[in-house]
Design goal:
The structure is a homodimer. The first copy, chain A, is mainly α. Chain A has one domain: Orthogonal Bundle (Farnesyl Diphosphate Synthase), CATH 1.10.600.10. Chain A contains 15 helices and 2 strands. In chain A, a hairpin with a 2-residue loop joins strand 1 and strand 2. The longest helix of chain A is centred in the last third of the chain and has 28 residues. Chains A and B meet through helix 2, helix 6, helix 7 and helix 8 of A and helix 2, helix 6, helix 7 and helix 8 of B.
């Protein structure tokens, strides 16, 4: 996983070439957040899904970088004063704290747009069929767009007025976080020319670990400690945000994470996916993380 | 032109289907700005370029809508308090004035992402070859991204500290406005399977009218009147923004618009483009507009 992490960092570093004549503030702001660390879970999932199907890591890398660009843009915009108004992210000052709000908005816009460029690279350089690449573009626009991540974020903002039931919270989790995870798995599969059945297995895997991941976040936020998380804990409680444990309790939430993780593992280990080992490892890793 | 305008409005209206289960604030905010009027110049250019090559209007329409979504997102984000802080746009309150900053940011993000979906539709529904559609996706990501429109916008923000020469101003004009116009023409050409030579002609046409359009804007801002423009005139002067007339004077600016318009017309009327009439009309229209 560390090896893939290094590859992704390299890819992200090179994704905005030094010879581009663009305003320095924009370049620095995009670089700052792209290379601010993070677990690189989504790129890892793209590559793991491609490799689970016998696909090439090289061809998966530009798509892995694209999904991290989208994730990074969403964090930059989420942190803005008009949204969550966060001063720190991954232990560092947030983008707008360093570069100002205007540049942070533009850095986010730039990363989102550039992500689509990165995907087309996979097709051009590594001979992923145009039809598959186009399907990846379409799915990114759906899973990251109004019906997907942006919709989840909007629901989250609306929810600050008060989330009344678990369904509403689930909608937020599924779209705000889960959709980009599902995208990552399906895109990895598509790079390796996955069949419809295989794409469905990867989708179930992604949907399940995506929700498990988010419930786990809710749990960690309750029981984690400030140092390990690198951000203020119980911030959700302080902000009056309701979470999974709020609705169904801590034990039930843990049981739900276990149930979803089992579901995820079953989806990819029934024989449909040729080499599911790395995917299973990641599911295990996400379940057992303490930060 | 009115007929195409209606088609585009219809396409934009339907681009966010009523059966999508998305937060109502997001839907309303996207609709509000998409359907707030405007000249629809970019969609018109996509369709005119496609038709100048004998391409189908139906296949061009989703791409025309996509480019208007990108244009609209850029206006929503430009108007934000952290950017130009505008209260009115096309005579109506700006998006963030109606829906709040958070929703306006998300509406912009949603429209930008959804634009890429709209492009993939052209391929799926109207059998535009996947390779051409992928090239359109790639070019949108370049012309609207960090090297293109977003870069131009960032340069414009940096320029508020003071633009020192015409080259810097030209960079802003070319990227902030011109790039999306060039994209519109090339995308229209690609829908009709334009050759490299034809794409170059459309690019020259787009580059020239794009810059002419912007210089004309600078001129109109100096001599226009408040009612016709529907926004505060001389706002650029009031904001200490330097414009073309500032550097080379009003007469020279007008001469430059004429020169660029001539260049644009020549590029498409030499026989390379089968039916350039509509394109020539548009160039004429842009040159002679008074708002």
């Amino acid at each position: 996983m560390n090896e893939i992490g290094s590859l992704v960092n390299q890819g992200l570093e090179q994704s905005i070439p030094g010879d581009w004549s663009i305003p320095s503030s924009l370049r620095e702001a995009m670089h700052y957040s792209l290379l601010a660390g993070g677990k690189r879970i989504r790129p890892l999932l793209v590559i793991a899904a491609a490799e689970s199907m016998g696909g090439s890591r090289e061809a998966a890398l530009p798509v892995a970088c694209a999904v991290e660009m989208v994730h990074t843009y969403s964090l930059i915009h989420d942190d803005l004063p008009a949204m969550d108004n966060d001063d720190f992210r991954r232990g560092k000052p947030t983008n707008h704290k360093v570069f100002g709000e205007a540049t942070a908005i533009l850095a986010g816009d730039g990363l989102l747009t550039h992500a689509f460029y990165s995907i087309t690279e996979a097709s051009r350089k590594f001979h992923v069929p145009a039809e598959q690449t186009l399907a990846i573009v379409e799915e990114l626009s759906v899973y990251a767009g109004p019906k997907g991540m942006v919709g989840g974020q909007a629901a989250d903002m609306e929810g600050e007025q008060g989330i009344t039931d678990l369904e509403q919270l689930k909608y937020i989790h599924i779209h705000k976080t889960g959709d980009l995870i599902v995208f990552s798995l399906k895109a990895g599969g598509r790079i390796a020319s996955a069949s419809q059945e295989q794409l469905r297995a990867l989708e179930t895997f992604g949907r399940s670990i995506g929700l498990a991941f988010q419930i786990q976040d809710d749990i960690l936020d309750l029981i984690g400690n400030e140092q390990k998380l690198g951000k203020k804990t119980q911030s959700d409680v302080a902000m009056n945000k309701v979470t999974y444990p709020y609705f169904i309790g801590l034990d039930e939430s843990k049981a739900e994470v276990d149930r979803l993780t089992k579901l995820a593992k079953e989806a990819v280990s029934g024989g449909v996916i040729p080499n599911p080992e790395r995917l299973l490892q990641i599911a295990e890793f996400l379940l057992n993380r303490d930060h």
